[in-house]
Give the backbone structure.
Amino acid sequence: MLAQQIINGLTLGGVYAIIALGYTMVYGILELINFAHGEIYMLGAYAGIIFFGLFTAIGLTSYSLPLSIVLTLILSIIFCSSYGFTIEKIAYKPLRKAPRLSPLISAIGVSIFLQNYVMLTQGATDRVFPYLFGAAGFDFIGARVTYLQSFIIAISALLMLSLHFFVARTMIGKAMRAVAQDRVMASLVGINIDTVISTTFVIGSGLAAVAGMMVAMYYGLVNYSIGYIAGIKAFTAAVLGGIGSIPGAMFGGIVLGLVEAMGAAYISSEYKDAYAFVILIIILLIKPAGLFGKSTEDRYK
Amino acid sequence: MYLLEVRDLTKHFGGIKAVEEVSFKVREGSIMSIIGPNGAGKTTLFNCLTGLTKPTKGKIYFLDKDLASLPPHSIVKLGIARTFQNIRLFREMTVLENVMVAQHSKAKSGLFGSILRPQGFIDEEKTIKEKSIEYIELVGLEDFTNTIAGNLPYGSQRRLEIARALATEPRMVLLDEPTAGMNPQETSEMMDIMKRLQEFGKTIILIEHDMKVVMGISDRIIVLDHGIKIAEGLPDEVRRDQMVIEAYLGKETH
């Protein structure tokens, strides 16, 4: 029972972590809570359904299922990254010198717009993602792990490791950290701030696309409002780990997934969505900077 | 050959005239010092030269290019680097990373490059790393390559700032009080570093309060007071200038 809940929690937690990374990276660089990020994840789920449906229609899925899944993932990433890139240019960049509340309100506006846009174009009812793997799986230390779960856990872990490597080692990763630490100074060593910000949005949105697609596969159902609750939960995960901190978002996501799975199993599944908010409130009361985060005073020391 | 020409540069903040119609030229390979009491507009002048603030009026030509409309990162690419009076390192990054990131604009592999061509960006990183270590050796920090910048002693942080500025491969370096808060030993080391930069052909504009440094190292000096240039000349000329003595040196030269 416990092992089973850990597996369920890791599956969920991996997805939360992947979404939380988008929040935390944007916050690290712009100090903006990008409330439209949950909607990017929702768009990713829809893109997954649409592209996969397209491949089914042309017969690619019956030719090669893994190839169709990979292609769907890639197309969804490109789709969502384009949205992320464009949203930043239209809704946030013009407000970069405005008071901090303005881009935040703009983000909420984008979020509402995208929800309604998808509701109008895709309908208000649930859309179905084909149930690809069934319940097939394997037994692992007393838990039943479906192939889909192991796929989700593996992809999440792979993405987190790649991102960590990317930020720590590559030149553009170093530039991102430099911009996060001191934007003005970064521009004075020749870093193009706009490029770095765009890159951050592209990466964050690409990650959200993968998360959206994985959740669509996992639950099978998607609607225009799933971005809201997932966004709030991933935001909680980012705050839990310390917003702005990349390892923090990964850790926070996993912890949140585990807490939810445990809470659903041992307390009540009726309150499944409430545990995240309980955690959010506790963190804000006890350690507002999060587990890996620095207080605002420290950041500017 | 003049590398930099500033013509009637003016910067007002509301009613405050931070810089008022300042003009000067800087010869390539020379050290030009800017002195003046606090609030004379020295740092504002640096901010205009590096694109951080847009001048209210006036022109700045660097290599005959007008800098007025360029963003900071483009000005860096043309060859102007600077340090700050209050040190602005990337405190959570290592010494090596601080210097490497300053060569970012030279790196070709962007987001897709580093995903699609791992070998290319590994080679590139190696080249950048080797170059960075040269700059670090130049300022004598080779024993601290992997130290987190924020943990360095004060004097070393200043030297790292210079190494990072050099890593952008500038033709001109703007140093904002590089010896502030240093003891005499560190100050003389800093003067050596500046002389070495000049030997490498770098042009230096220096804001400095320590008169020993200014008189010892400058080829030319300009004096600002309340945003206005009140004197310009060789160190000896400035030292004897009556207006300068009244405005600035008066208290020090009895």
